[in-house]
Amino acid sequence: WITKIFGLTFGIKLLEKGEEAAVKAYEKLGEILPEAVDIKQEEDEHEHTLLSMIKEERLEYVGSIVLGLNDALVELTGALAGLTFALQNTDLIALTGLITGIAASFSMAASEYLSTAAESSKKYAVKSSIYTGSAYILTVFLLILPYLLMHNPFLSLLTTIIIAILIIAFFNFYVSVAKDLNFIKRFTEMSVISLGVALLTFVISFGIRSFWGIEI
């Protein structure tokens, strides 16, 4: 099921990470039989060689997915934070956020197509834009969902931030396993940027609302 949903590369590498007991067994055996260390090294080399032969489309477009996902997280968490304080009405916030998010997803997909088409084939550019737009719009719906289900705008914002953190954690875990990257570093960087923008926008919205004295 893991390989069917998340791909063969992710499934195999996730299983590899569960081989800690086997690694320890090899190390203990190596104290008695030095040949066991060589066997372990050969096994690792064979695994990496076989994995490098697997070509999965979703991994080829990880950059496009990151672009759509990260842009939606940064832009929409910031926008929702600002709208929460400015409007303080979940229905208005959800409507405004949804319109903004859908328009931005189409804009981002179009920009990704034009950018990629200038550097590679149009077929690759089309797929790249689809992955970017899909990642963006899926993130938009997940972030706006609390405002559709709750009536307290500040509780909705808190839930949205938690969802954003979970999205960042899940995606970076997937990429870190599939591409052998540092999970903590990527997760921290993406979280700081997304939540930092949300906080900054919230503060700016507070200033604008106070300056103009607008009440809705």
UniProtKB/TrEMBL annotation:
Pfam family name, one: VIT1
Subcellular location: Endomembrane system
GO cellular component assignments: endomembrane system
Major localisation: membrane
Swiss-Prot/TrEMBL GO biological process terms: intracellular manganese ion homeostasis
Domain of life: Bacteria
The keyword Zinc is assigned to this record: no
UniProt-recorded Gene Ontology molecular function terms: manganese ion transmembrane transporter activity
Coiled-coil region: none
Membrane-protein topology: Multi-pass membrane protein
Keywords: Membrane, Transmembrane, Transmembrane helix
Positions of transmembrane segments: 61-86, 92-110, 130-149, 155-175, 187-208
Protein name: Rubrerythrin family protein
Lineage of producing organism: Bacteria, Pseudomonadati, Deferribacterota, Deferribacteres, Deferribacterales
